[in-house]
Write a structure and sequence with these properties.
The protein is built from 21 helices and 16 strands. The longest helix has 26 residues. Helix content is 35%, strand content 16%.
Length: 558
C-alpha cells in the first residue's frame, strides 16, 4: 500500500494537488485571522507572537534560515511523555488553513493528553510562513517536527525515531490529510504497516476520503467532518466558543488607522476572502496621499459591474472557482494529456458580474438588512464604515511597512460594457478599506466588535463566524455546500447540535466503544464508496489509473 501511494504522490500530481485544494478551499491567507485560537480549556495559549502581540500582525519576513525542517523537543527532553497522542498535519500549497485545522486538533487533544505534532508540507512555498504561524503552539509541545516533500518524515525524525514515536502513541490522528498528494505517505503507511498500529484520518470539512480501508490495508479509519443539520455524520471544531476574550478595543484601533477620532460614528465589518481571489477586486486610485493630518491613505473608487438599471450585477448561476476547478479535475481523470490550470480567478469587470467584495460593500452602503435599522448615513448623520480585509490590498500593505494599509472609498465606478458612471458616496457616508491581519488569539474579541453581516471563506473562519452569532451573507467562491449547511443549521436553530469535532477526537482517545463504533462506520462507508467507484469507473481499484486513485482518495468520486 505504501509504495502504491508514493507512486501517486509524485511530481505528476502537483497540478492535481493545486486543483484539489483550491476547489475545496482552505483558509484564505497567510494566517491572518483564519485560525481558531487556543483556549484556556485546552491548556495552552496560542495567540500570536512578535508584532501580532501589539494588535495587528506585521508582514515582516524572517531570514531564510529562521526555520528549517527539524524535530524539536521541549526543554531538550530525550524521553517522550507517557500516554501521548500523535497528530500529523498535511499542509498543502494553497494556504495555511490546513495548519489551523491541525492546530485546533492539537489544542482540543491537549485537554486530555500530551500531544506530539508533526507537520508535513507538500512544498516549500508556505513552509516558513506556516512555521511562523504556529511557532508558539509548537514550542510548548513535548515534541514538534516539520518536514517538506524534499526531505520527508525520515529527514525530520529519522526512520527509527519515527517508528518509536508512531508505535508509542496512545492514538494517532492525521488532521487534516488528503491521500495521494505527497511523498510523505510512503513513510507514513510504511511505519503503520510495520508496527501494525492503526490511525484516524480527518480531512477538510465535508470532503470524503474514498475507500480508505482498501488503500491503507485496513489501518486507516476516516472521521467524518463538516456541518450537519439532522444528525448526519460530521462535526466542526468549536474552539472559538471556549476562547478567552482580550481587552483589545478593535474599533478604536482601526479608527486610529483611518484617522477617525469619534468612535460613536464607527461600524466595523469583517471581510475574509481567499488570498488568490484578490485579483477579482477592482479599484481605481483617485488620490495617492489623502488624509492630511489624520494620516496618509489612498482615496479610491470601487469598480462595480452594473446593469442597465445601474444596479449591481450578481449572477447566481455563475460557477464558483471551486466548481471551475472541479470540472478540470474530472477532465484530468478522463484525459491523461489534459493540463489543468488552477488560476481560474479573473477581474470582476472581465467576468461581467460583481465579486464578493463589491457585493459586500454594496450591501453596507445600500441594504438596510446589513445595518438593521441604523439610519446613520441615510438620514444625513455621519457614519464611518471600516471594512477589515486581510487579503485585499496586500501589496499596498506590504509596501507600507506598517502592517496595515488604508484606502477610503469615496465613489463607485459603475461599469457597464465600455461605459462608466462615477457615483460619489452620499453625504454623511464614509467607507474605508483596511488591509490588516488580526491575530488568531484575538478573533473572538474582534468578531464580537464587528457588525452581524460578514464574509468568510474556509472551514475555520466560517465556524468562528457562525458560533459567534454572525451571518456570512454572501456565497463564497468554494465550499458552497458547507456554507449552505451552516446557514441552514442556523435557520433551523440546530447550531448547538452540530457535533463538536474536538469532543469526538477526545472520545476516540478515551473510549473503547467510541473507537469500535467509529471504525465500524468508517469500514461501511469505505466499502460502499468502493462499490460506487467501481461502478463509475468500470474497473476494480487495481485497474485504476493514478489520477483516478487521487480523485477517489480526495472524495471526488463515488
Amino acid at each position: 500500500q505504501a509504495s502504491q501511494s508514493a507512486g501517486i504522490g509524485g511530481a505528476g500530481s502537483n497540478a492535481l494537488a493545486a486543483l484539489l485544494t483550491a476547489s475545496g478551499s482552505s483558509e484564505g491567507g497567510d494566517g491572518g485571522g483564519g485560525g481558531g485560537p487556543a483556549t484556556a480549556a485546552a491548556g495552552g495559549s496560542s495567540g500570536s507572537s512578535g508584532a501580532a502581540a501589539a494588535g495587528v500582525a506585521a508582514d515582516a519576513k524572517p531570514a531564510a534560515s529562521a526555520f528549517a525542517p527539524v524535530a524539536r523537543t521541549a526543554g531538550g527532553a530525550t524521553e517522550l511523555p507517557s500516554g501521548y497522542v500523535l497528530v500529523l498535519t498535511q499542509v498543502l500549497p494553497d494556504g495555511l488553513g490546513d495548519l489551523i485545522f491541525g492546530e485546533n486538533a492539537v489544542h482540543e487533544l491537549q485537554v486530555i493528553a500530551p500531544v506530539l505534532w508533526i507537520r508535513c508540507y507538500t512544498g516549500k512555498e508556505n513552509f516558513e510562513a506556516g512555521e511562523r504561524l504556529i511557532a508558539e503552539t509548537a514550542s510548548a509541545l513535548p515534541l514538534s517536527a516539520s518536514c517538506t516533500n524534499e526531505g520527508g518524515l525520515a529527514a525530520a525524525l529519522g526512520r527509527d525515531r519515527l517508528r518509536t514515536v508512531w508505535a508509542g502513541a496512545r492514538e494517532r490522528f492525521l488532521a487534516p490529510w488528503i491521500f495521494g498528494l505527497s511523498t510523505h505517505e510512503e513513510a507514513l503507511l510504511g511505519v503503520a504497516e510495520r508496527t501494525s498500529k492503526p490511525f484516524w484520518a480527518l480531512t477538510e470539512y465535508g470532503r470524503g476520503m474514498g475507500n480508505i480501508h482498501t488503500y491503507t490495508g485496513g489501518l486507516g479509519a476516516m472521521i467524518p467532518t463538516g456541518w450537519t443539520v439532522q444528525g448526519e455524520p460530521g462535526g466542526v471544531f468549536k474552539s472559538i466558543e471556549r476562547a478567552t476574550r482580550t481587552e483589545t478595543n478593535w474599533r478604536q484601533r482601526f479608527s486610529e488607522h483611518c484617522g477617525i477620532a469619534d468612535l460613536s460614528k464607527v461600524r466595523l465589518w469583517w471581510f475574509y476572502s481567499r488570498k488568490d481571489d484578490e485579483k477579482k477586486h477592482d479599484f481605481r486610485v483617485l488620490e495617492e496621499n489623502a488624509g492630511g493630518s489624520s494620516g496618509s491613505f489612498r482615496q479610491v473608487a470601487k469598480v462595480v459591474p452594473v446593469g442597465t438599471d445601474s444596479k449591481i450585477i450578481t449572477d447566481a448561476q455563475e460557477k464558483t472557482s471551486g466548481e471551475k476547478l472541479a470540472e478540470q479535475l474530472f477532465q484530468a481523470a478522463n484525459d491523461p494529456n489534459f493540463k489543468p490550470n488552477p488560476n481560474v480567478a479573473c477581474a470582476e469587470v472581465t467576468a461581467g458580474c460583481a465579486g464578493q467584495l463589491s457585493q459586500f460593500l454594496w450591501g453596507v452602503l445600500f441594504d438596510p438588512a446589513y445595518t438593521k435599522g441604523d439610519q446613520r448615513g441615510r438620514d444625513g448623520t455621519e457614519v464611518v464604515d471600516i471594512v477589515v480585509a486581510p487579503n485585499v490590498m496586500t501589496q499596498w500593505r506590504e509596501a507600507s511597512g506598517k502592517g496595515f494599509a488604508v484606502a477610503e472609498v469615496t465613489q463607485l465606478d459603475l461599469v457597464r460594457g465600455t461605459t462608466c458612471k462615477e457615483e460619489p458616496l452620499t453625504r454623511g457616508r464614509r467607507l474605508f478599506m483596511c488591509s490588516a491581519k488580526v491575530p488568531r488569539a484575538e478573533m473572538k474579541t474582534f468578531l464580537e466588535q464587528c457588525e452581524e453581516r460578514v464574509f468568510t471563506t474556509g472551514d475555520q473562519s466560517l465556524a468562528e463566524a457562525m458560533f459567534l452569532g454572525k451571518i456570512p451573507c454572501i456565497k463564497p467562491d468554494a465550499k458552497v455546500q458547507q456554507w449552505q449547511l451552516a446557514l441552514l443549521a442556523r435557520a433551523m436553530g440546530t447550531l448547538s447540535s452540530v457535533p463538536d469535532l474536538g469532543a469526538e477526537l477526545r472520545r476516540l482517545v478515551e473510549e473503547d466503544a467510541a473507537r469500535s463504533e467509529a471504525r465500524k462506520r468508517s469500514k461501511e462507508r469505505s466499502d460502499d464508496l468502493e462499490k460506487q467507484m467501481v461502478a463509475q469507473i468500470g474497473a476494480p481499484p487495481s485497474a485504476w489509473n493514478p489520477t483516478q486513485h487521487v480523485l477517489s482518495r480526495a472524495g471526488m468520486m463515488g
